[in-house]
Design goal:
By secondary structure, this protein is of the alpha/beta class. The protein has a domain of 220 residues: Rossmann fold, CATH 3.40.50.720. 42% of the residues lie in helices and 18% in strands. The two termini are 37 Å apart.
Length: 320
């Protein structure tokens, strides 16, 4: 099959690309290489694919219908994996208009072009942040998600609603996947797994927001990719599905895991919780198990050991 991946040069997109190419699918990557973090990281992500048969790169922006039309006009596209977005809760509070433009208007554009070109399946990368500040676990897809506490979360929920609209109006198969704190090799440098690892290696203060009791459902990249590919293959009419590990880890415990993986103690400094942060994420994955055969395999210690091994090699230039 021929798959368009928007945001295909990023962390998750490049991992999905590798999986699809390995099994013989064709991948069209659309990315604007924005500077939310160093765009050279994204270019390094896709460098191994540039000469591979079945891979093509288009530099463009989902806010531009012209850019999207150029991609869809170049060759037939069977399925779309829409990952392109402005990420990050705290940055969204400072730049809400940017998040609305990219995550809402941009998603509308991708949906519109996809339905005009009779795409068979549209898979959207959503976020556990849509659940808001909940204390009861686990989070189920059947529960209301109408109280997002950051512009990022609100735009992700709005995009989910748009997928239903396009399914209802045009019969477009749409699946929204709610990702729960994805980490692993090539992970985003603004997220805790990367930041904590870097700070501990460098002997810098590790900033901990709150008292360390907040809990996250950390999901290793290989498990996320397996769920994403299953959703692409399934061609479900319309679904919203959690993709998590289903085991929560406290912030204090997570810091301890990173310390053990690095082999050094952290210099932890506690500061106040930031606006937009939620105290808990916890995925009920029964729906993913039933519909996608989803079965996460990687616990937090194994996953962070793999990440730190990658960090030593690719970032620090150390041999194994």
């Amino acid at each position: 099959m021929r798959v368009l991946i928007t945001g295909g040069a990023g962390f998750i997109g490049s991992h999905v690309t590798a999986w699809l190419l390995k099994r013989g699918d064709e991948v069209i990557c659309l990315d604007n290489f924005n500077d939310y973090y160093d765009p050279q990281r994204k270019r390094r992500n896709i460098e191994p694919f540039l000469e591979r048969p079945g891979y093509s790169l288009h530099e463009g922006d989902i806010r531009s219908l012209e850019d999207l039309q150029a991609v869809f006009g170049a060759s037939p596209i069977d399925k779309v994996l829409h990952i392109a977005a402005m990420a990050g809760v705290r940055y969204s509070i400072q730049h809400p208009e940017l998040y609305a433009a990219v995550n809402v208007t941009g998603t509308t554009n991708v949906l519109e072009i996809a339905r005009r070109h009779n795409v068979r399946n549209f898979v959207f990368a959503s976020s556990s942040s849509v659940y808001g500040a909940r204390s009861e676990a686990p989070f189920r897809e059947s529960e209301m998600a109408d109280c997002p506490i950051s512009p990022y979360a609100a735009t992700k929920r709005a995009a989910e609603l748009l997928t239903f609209t396009y399914h209802h109006l045009y019969g477009l198969n749409c699946t929204s996947l709610r990702f729960f704190t994805v980490y692993g090799p090539k992970g985003r440098p603004d997220m805790a797994p990367y930041l904590f690892t870097r700070w501990i290696f460098e002997g810098k203060e590790l900033t901990m927001f709150g008292d360390g009791s907040s809990r996250r459902d950390y999901t290793y990249i290989d498990d996320i990719v397996a769920g994403v590919v299953a959703a692409l293959d399934a061609d479900l009419p319309f679904e919203i599905i959690n993709l998590g590990n289903s085991r929560t880890v406290s912030l204090n415990e997570f810091i301890s895991v990173v310390e053990d993986a690095v082999g050094k103690r952290a210099n932890v400094v506690s500061v106040n919780t930031q606006p937009g942060d939620v105290p808990l994420t916890s995925a009920d994955i029964r729906k993913a198990q039933d519909l996608l055969g989803y079965s996460p395999q990687t616990d937090i210690r194994e996953g962070m050991n793999r990440f730190v091994t990658w960090y030593r090699r690719e970032v620090l230039g150390q041999s194994a």
